[in-house]
Amino acid sequence: MSFGDAAASSSAMEDSSDASVCTICLDALDRKRIVILMHCKHQFHRTCALEWFEPNKDPSTHSCCLCRATVAEVVSENGSRVCRMFPFEEEEVYMKRLLRLHAYEADDDNIEVMKKGRGQILKDLKNLETEKELAKKERKCEEYIIDIDEERAKLEKRKCAIEMLITYYEEIRAAISSGCVELLNDAVIL
């Protein structure tokens, strides 16, 4: 097969797969929930797209895995915004060090950012429960419902991690306020 044939074949595959296949996992789009990336409008399974973004923690650098266009926003099929969430549960040591470093700053807004993140997670968990009920009512395939359950489990784990980080941060701030800085210096972060 020549380069031209391969390019034509690849182009034809992209055209046909854009409409019916998630180009990340190569499974049919209708098997799971779908998201649309703005501005390129490429569609992927929600879990596939979110997993694609997670290693790159800065949303401003997220790009479409198909065309590399910068992703301004991720929306669901019904047009509602899908939140790209920092994987707190995978970065516990890093987050603890960062929080400890910034705990001394008077204008530090880390706690508010974390509480906002927790609020978004709680909102997403509630939405997933509603989405699951609707999927069952519409008799979606089991894989579709399992996809929702897996995202819910991931968000529950993330919620626990962020709650632990909030508690940790509040304890650090309390120690600083009470003058127990030497305890902070002796604290071991894994």
From TrEMBL:
<dbReference type="GO" id="GO:0061630">
    <property type="term" value="F:ubiquitin protein ligase activity"/>
</dbReference>
<dbReference type="Pfam" id="PF13639">
    <property type="entry name" value="zf-RING_2"/>
</dbReference>
<dbReference type="InterPro" id="IPR001841">
    <property type="entry name" value="Znf_RING"/>
</dbReference>
<protein>
    <submittedName>
        <fullName>Zinc finger protein</fullName>
    </submittedName>
</protein>
<dbReference type="InterPro" id="IPR013083">
    <property type="entry name" value="Znf_RING/FYVE/PHD"/>
</dbReference>
